[in-house]
Amino acid sequence: xxxxxxxxxxxxxxxxxxxxxxxxxxxxxxxxxxxxxxxxxxxxxxxxxxxxxxxxxxxxxxxxxxxxxxxxxxxxxxxxxxxxxxxxxxxxxxxxxxxxxxxxxxxxxxxxxxxxxxxxxxxxxxxxxxxxxxxxxxxxxxxxxxxxxxxxxxxxxxxxxxxxxxxxxxxxxxxxxxxxxxxxxxxxxxxxxxxxxxxxxxxxxxxxxxxxxxxxxxxxxxxxxxxxxxxxxxxxxxxxxxxxxxxxxxxxxxxxxxxxxxxxxxxxxxxxxxxxxxxxxxxxxxxxxxxxxxxxxxxxxxxxxxxxxxxxxxxxxxxxxxxxxxxxxxxxxxxxxxxxxxxxxxxxxxxxxxxxxxxxxxxxxxxxxxxxxxxx
Length: 376
Known about the structure:
alpha/beta
């Protein structure tokens, strides 16, 4: 499964506008349903003040940040799980993503048609109904996936008997918890599953099991407050699912993305009371939602942020740089960015006894600066 974040939602909620601002890519954003048919894919550099600080210390010739891959998936409507609109294709695109950014319309604009039932029927701005519509369609698709697997499991049990029943016990218990939720249009990720149960259903790639954050797309009048009556509805639903909410004004972020001068960007954000772009927050939260973490390498030639999965041990992290580093791993020399900020230089870190030698079992921490010793 590729490590990317799928941007989903009903048509005309601002998905493509946000995607275009994220990636500065020419994603279609015209005001009519289904203007996005094939998923647009964009790679977004992940701003990181820790990498910026490492560069200040090392003054390298090159800076290489981490990145997040976003996929702009066309708008779903009611009936997508039955193939309505372009539903089957869109659901397949969602299935291939690692996490979901669910964009919800939280603004009024009579000039932009809002649809829920079909492409020709105007719908009221109602974040709760919008979210329920998307979740219901994803849940119905998951029920279809489970039904197909149940048919396969019945055949397996007939062929292999009690041994197969024993092996399928965690799967059966997980599905017993999940199915009632899906039948109510709720998400499988809200089920209280054991680790064995999660492992048993993982290969089905259920859509409603995917980590999800909500993106509340507001109008420019709501930027100063950072919320409005629609956003509060989204936050309430997110809290019930233990999900996060990122509040973004797609129109403002689109305008901001066209400004390249750092001073002008700062002035533009200061004018509305923002200290950080909403898209920067979205990229960072999506990165962490996928279970990704960052370690750094630094020197005169290059300072670089490297992406790893949470829980990677030192040899696995070394392998991200080059497979030979993992094969011939000897040790990792390590310190944290926070210690670099505190002491000011690598030499001072060593003097303070904060420069570490780590072996094969060391679990790399987010924000580590590493230098690998290896022999092939």
